[in-house]
Amino acid sequence: MEIAMNKLYWTVWMIVITSVIILLEKVLLKPRRIRSVLEKQGIKGPKPSFPFGNISEMQQIRPQPPAGADSTEEWVYSLFPYFETWKQRYGSLYTYSTGIKQHLYVEKGELIKDMSVVMSPDLGRVEYLNKALDPMLGDGILRANGKSWIFQRNLIMAELFMSKVKTMLGDMEESALEIIKKWERCITESKEGIAEIVIESDLKVLSEDIISKACFGSDYTQGKHIFERLNAIQAKLSKTSTLLGFLNLSFLPNKDRREIWKLKKEVDVLIMNIIRDREIENQKNNNNKKHNDLLQKIIEGVANEKLLNASGKGTLKAGHDMNQLIIDICKSIYFAGSESTALSVVWAMYLLAVYPEWQQRIRTEISETFGNLPPSFTDITKLNQLKKLQMVILESMRIYGPAVTNSRETLAEMKIGNLVLPKGLYIWMFVPLLHRDTDNWGPDATEFKPERFANGLSGACKYPQAYLPFGYGSRHCLGQNFTLTEIKIVLGLLVNNFEFKLSPNYVHCPASNFLLVPKYGVKLLVSKVDHNKGK
Q1: If 0-12 CB within 10 Å is exposed, 13-18 middle and 19+ buried, where does residue 287 land?
Q2: Which parts of the chain span the membrane according to its record (predicted)?
């Protein structure tokens, strides 16, 4: 009996000692080791304090816009004011801590250029962020790492080449024309032929309708409930402080968490219903008249992977939940293909309202390209000739791009350029500041100058890789062709049909809600274009 008690005693002590060692390694030794590796390479930053790192200082730092900064630019320094404050102290490359998490802030074009050529999946999405966003995006392409990301990338990439996007132009134009009809009715019903319109709600419906038709063979009505629930999840998740590495208490079953997971289950059911309807439709047609859209390719690709997986030849691990994989891929496409695109058009229209001379330049270009006939943007050759429109879009996405931050995690030790980055390092970029970097964009970096893109992105700045509305490197947005084409059609049609200027009721307050949103909406005074004026 005594021998047994001694064995139990020593076993318990070994478990305690092992647990303490593991805890010390995770809480103290690993963070110090990461910081030491960076410090030896000349990378410094604010000194962390145990156990919260630099969180206290982050919460105390107040916005400090540079002297002489335009009032419309103050929001840039208010979103995450510590990024700019620490940049002034430590330069464009520094390290900071949130608890046990060690971060590297990057605002250095040369390093981003080096990072952009890294094809290894070891420079992946941030794992703790993936967990926080799981209810909204699951393990879809926007958040996946490793073999799951490789499989999804290969599955989706070919379906978003320009050759496929060209077949979707009709759906894009059809949806845009519906919004034009709605705004024309608003103008007709107004007293002086000028309607005040809060544009983002209509543009959101427009982008949701386009992604539904072009990629899922349905319309906005069928996807409406999916979008509503994804938006509700996004709103609730944006209230948390987990995104930049703050303490994650998402495991606590509070009211918001219960509501988030309820919405997540509802989204999954709604998307699964669309998938099953498609599978039933395929069976009724004996697979002879199958759709040729993205949803069909996802279903077929996952079904093929399931067969390979069963024989041990698949990309994914055996036992992977294939139904959930389809749902998660669809959620990523629904979210990325609607929300960010709508916001891109919203901010472009805001800038065109502030700089109305560019509205006229676009209309003139459309007239010269299409002649006297009403323009049909389904002609890809003529669409590609609208260079001024393209310049406005690129410049708008530079100054008010929907992406607020860009993050990566080193899933293994990596050598990037002249730097050795240890495993477990979180890399952050604050896109609005990066897109206003005078070292890369010149002394007029804060100004709206579409002409800087007259010779394309490579002629607009020193490091084109530091232009991040679509990310960079191997994790570059696969839907770039789709998104830019959609924005071009929607914005071109709206500018050609309407004149608009800022409403006196507009309040300029860009805010972060994962994406860059107008906190109080964008209100424009909209009137019909008189194409006969001046003839």
Answers
A1: exposed
A2: 12-29
Q: Which of 418, 398, 427, 332 is nearest to 133 (CA)?
A: 332
Average pLDDT over residues 219-239: 84
Q: How far, in Å, CA of 433 to CA of 446, rounded? A: 10
Query: Is beta strand 101-106 parallel, antiparallel or unpaired with respect to 419-421?
Result: unpaired
Mean pLDDT of 81-91: 95
Q: Give the Cα separation of 100 and 166 in Å (integer).
A: 48
Give the mean model confidence (pLDDT) for residues 145-167: 90
Mean pLDDT lowest among 16-20, 208-212, 414-418, 467-471: 16-20
For residue 40, give Cα distances in angstroms to 36, 37, 96.
6, 5, 15
Question: What is the per-residue pLDDT across 45-70, written as a single tens digit (0 to 9) for each?
Answer: 999 998 889 999 999 999 888 877 78
**Residue 410: what are its φ and ψ, rounded to 5°?**
-85, 105
Query: What number of CA atoms fall less than 13 Å from residue 247's CA on the CB side?
Result: 9
Residue 282 placed within a domain: yes
**Nearest CA-CA partner of 450 in 390, 525, 368, 381:** 390
Give how far Cα 141 sits from Cα of 102, 154, 334, 478, Å: 25, 10, 12, 9
* Strands, E assignment, 192-338: 195-198
Asked if 293 and 171 count as a contact pair (C-beta separation under 8 A), the reply is no
Q: Name the 3-class secondary structure at 367.
A: helix
At 413, list the tokens.
């030790």
- The answer to whether residue 93 sits within a structural domain is no
The whole domain housing 269 covers 100-528
Residue 223 sits in a domain whose CATH number is 1.10.630.10
Cα dist from 390 to 197, 210, 355, 487, 528, whole Å: 25, 20, 16, 9, 23
Looking at 315-457, which runs of residues are DSSP E strands?
405-410, 414-416, 419-421, 426-430
Q: Note whether 392 and 362 are within 8 A (CB).
A: yes
Q: How many CB atoms are located within 10 Å of the residue 496 CB?
A: 21
Q: Answer whether residue 22 is part of any domain.
A: no
For the chain, the domain total comes to: 1
For helices 169-189 and 199-216, give the axis angle rounded to 10 degrees: 150
Q: How many CB atoms lie within 10 A of CB 3?
A: 7
Task: Check residue 403 and report its DSSP letter.
Answer: B
What helix, strand, coil percent values describe the chain, rounded to 5?
A: 60, 10, 30
Q: Is residue 73 part of a domain?
A: no
Nearest residue to 503 via CA among 517, 516, 521? 521
Q: Is position 509 annotated in a ligand binding site?
A: no
Two tokens, residue 338 = 């609607």
- Angle subtended by helix axes 480-497 and 199-216, to nearest 10: 130
Residue-wise pLDDT for 335-347, tens only, equals 888 899 999 999 9
User: 101 - beta bridge partners?
Assistant: 98
Q: Which residue has the tokens 């490091």?
A: 463
Radius of gyration of the chain from Cα atoms? 25
Specify the pLDDT at position 199: 97
- DSSP code at position 417: T
Q: CA–CA separation, 262 vs 233, rounded Å?
A: 10
